[in-house]
Structure prediction request, 235 residues.
Amino acid sequence: MGDLVTITPAEHTALARLEERERKVRRGATLQRANDRVGELFILRKGTMMSSVLLDDGSRQILRFQFPGDMMGLTSLVYREAPETITALSDSVVCPFERSALSEILSAHPRLAALMMVYGQIERAALTDRLAAIGRTSAKARVAAILIDMRNRLRMLDKHIGNSFMLGLTQEEIGDATGLTAVHVNRMLRQIEEEGLIARENGRVTFLDEGGLMRAANYADRYEGLDLSWLPAAR
Prediction:
């Protein structure tokens, strides 16, 4: 949350209470499975994870990629059973906490409660973009948008990241996020590379023409243009 506003010492202390416990999750392991009874929420401390749903035909739709600092499982707050599955894409560390701990924070720190709503709306807008892209844009645009989104999210964690980054996703995972087959993803990555928009080497992607890639993706950065003037004062 500190990337949007300056967190006060009292707010920092309250958030730190949510991270008092740690749990290691190995790459490929499931942290939460859809339709399981919901008991805990999580903050991702280290690694990369994803939320997804399994469709009736056995295919998987990836909804969101999660990075350190993300709060996971919030959609489970209003359900007895989890609506989505959370899986580790790399060896990860999560901090589990009970719903009651979150309730205490929301009561004592209304600005933090408002910020959680802000992040929820940012994620909702991003999911809306993804839905529109799957239904209305080309395969090339969908793959280009994933590349830009991954770079931007990684840059939020490390300001030193420029136009070159480790993607950390398989072509199957990109396909499950964009509604494409791994073969189609491979074809689109090669096309984007042949057009001089990116270069790839050993899992690293370098943007050679970021403007061209943005135009190809029809990408909107949902962390830009925020209006947080309405946030309540910190306590």
User: Anything to note?
Assistant: The helical segments are 9-16, 99-108, 110-136, 139-157, 171-178, 182-194, 210-217. The two ends are 16 Å apart (CA to CA). Residues 138-217 form a domain with the Arc Repressor Mutant, subunit A fold (CATH 1.10.10.10).
